[in-house]
Specification:
The chain is of the alpha+beta class. The protein has ten helices and twelve strands. The strands form four sheets. Strands 4-8-9-11-12 form a five-stranded mixed beta sheet, with helices on both faces. Strands 1-3-2 form a three-stranded antiparallel beta sheet. It is elongated, with a radius of gyration of 21 Å.
């Protein structure tokens, strides 16, 4: 049985219920959940806490386009004949346990998954920006050339037909930018809808600063200024939604990601890579 990392968090317990129902294909009752929590935490949870978890799951069920669970009065049951996609399971695992310290693979997979969702949302284009796995300064024939971040910013400006101005210092790495989405016009001129997003696959997402739009307007002379977005594998609570949206920009949480890609299978390679990572994690967790 997968452990519950935070037995006092409604969101974490609800994530755990989602993950177990999806992977074990068995119903979980209120009484059963209370027993699990008591075993993990050493004390029996209150009825009010269990009821709050149930309300959270009901809220989630109605937000998913194709929910993989059904909330009844006393049980949460798997939807009949529904198979949980690895992308959904990956988001649940990241939401519950964060990114392991010894690897950046899940964070990179999450960025690529974000790229798919943003492309679908915009009905346009999207690319993973990120910080390339190379040295900050490229050496050619013993001579230092421009920094990797500068090359990335130049390339981004060129692809979007916008004007490159300057690059951030190499110490800023990717300057908070992970994924770029845009809606181009057929004649390929500047002046278009552009979305600059940061992906936060770990637990500390609330403390992460959003993409600094003012700085990016210094690096690229946009004909029309871009807007910022923020992506997380968890479900942002309804109590946090408005303030986090005002602070971090357009939010893409698990519900939005999974709803956007539910009918999208255009990247079979990414699908298989995520599935391999998910299966390895489930083997470790069970």
């Amino acid at each position: 049985m997968i452990e519950i990392p935070d037995t006092g968090s409604v969101g974490s317990v609800a994530d755990w219920v989602e993950l177990n129902v999806a992977t074990r294909r068995e119903a979980i009752s209120k009484m059963g959940l209370a027993s699990y929590l008591e075993g993990f935490a050493g004390e029996e949870p209150s009825e009010a806490f269990i009821s709050t978890v149930w309300r959270e799951l009901e809220y989630r069920e109605h937000m998913y386009s194709h929910p993989l669970f059904r909330v009844e009065d006393r049980t949460v049951e798997p939807q009949a004949d529904s198979q949980a996609p690895p992308e959904y399971l990956a988001c649940l695992i990241l939401s519950l346990f964060g990114v392991p310290r010894d690897t950046q693979l899940p964070a990179k997979l999450f960025e690529r998954l974000t790229c798919r969702a943003v492309k679908k949302y915009l009905s346009g284009k999207a690319v993973v920006f990120g910080f390339p796995p190379e040295t900050d300064v490229e050496i050619v024939n013993g001579v230092e050339t421009e920094s990797s971040i500068k090359r990335k910013v130049k390339k981004l400006a060129s692809v979007l037909n916008e004007k490159f101005c300057e690059a951030p210092p190499a110490r800023f790495n990717d300057r908070g930018l992970d994924v770029v989405g845009w809606i181009p016009f057929n004649e390929k001129r500047s002046g278009q809808s552009v979305l600059l997003l940061q992906c936060a696959a770990g637990h500390n997402w609330k403390d992460k600063l959003p993409v600094p739009i003012d700085a990016w307007c210094q690096y690229i002379h946009w004909a029309c200024n871009p807007i910022k977005g923020f992506v997380v594998p968890c479900i942002v609570s309804k109590w946090d939604w408005h303030e986090k949206s005002k602070d971090k920009g357009i939010l893409f949480d698990r519900v939005r990601i999974i709803n956007l890609i539910s009918d999208d299978i255009d990247d079979s390679e990414l699908h298989e890579e995520i599935n391999a990572w998910v299966q390895a994690q489930l083997n470790e967790l069970n």
